[in-house]
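User: I'm new to structure prediction. If I give you an amino acid sequence, what do you actually give back? Let's try with this one:
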Amino acid sequence: MFLEVSNLAKSYVTAQIRTDVLRDVSFGLEQGKSLALTGESGCGKSTLLHLIGGLDVADAGTILLDGLDVTGLNDKARAKLRRETVGVVFQQFNLIPSLTVGANLVFQARLNGRYDPDFAKLLALRLGIEGHLDKFPDQLSGGQQQRVAIARTLAAKPKLVLADEPTGNLDEGTAAEVLALMLGLVRDAGTTLLMVTHSQKIADQLDQSIKLSSGRIL
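Assistant: Good question. You get back a string of structure tokens that encode the predicted 3D arrangement of the chain. For your 218 residues, that looks like this:
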């Protein structure tokens, strides 16, 4: 099992009020497979994704990622994990506005020493952004920016891609097109994918799905 989540718990305290976001969450995902996290808003989907990616720290439980216990890592080690093993595609594109599309695309790959110009060129071609590499993000449409964000993540050749509502800001037609391209590229690369979505239609396109409700798996 490439990803094993066991008895995971997370809560937040604000104004002396404790909110249990995740409670006793356990599941597994094999290498090269895809899994959808579904559930209503506020049920803990994004929090779970952030814990797996080392963007936040669990209160209890374990996350084993390719044999590595993510929950036992310090800040520096979690940053290394995100740089070398995990790629994240957010709903907000998070492109660097001062860099060209081409520079954005290879930014993460250069950081982790995996820059492959031929692979970057292939991604740009497959995602239909090869004609926009000299432009800046604000010169692109939302759908084009999301394509760049996906290409940037995949260019770094992560073992695991975490996608948080990656097409949530796009119109239905563009979302379907971008999603199909992303799923095809991930499958071709043999990358493991964990995607947060509120759409059952999207979830049905992945290998498996789990539903969260009030912080628990149904």
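You can read the tokens as a compact description of the fold. Here is one thing that stands out. The two ends are 21 Å apart (CA to CA).
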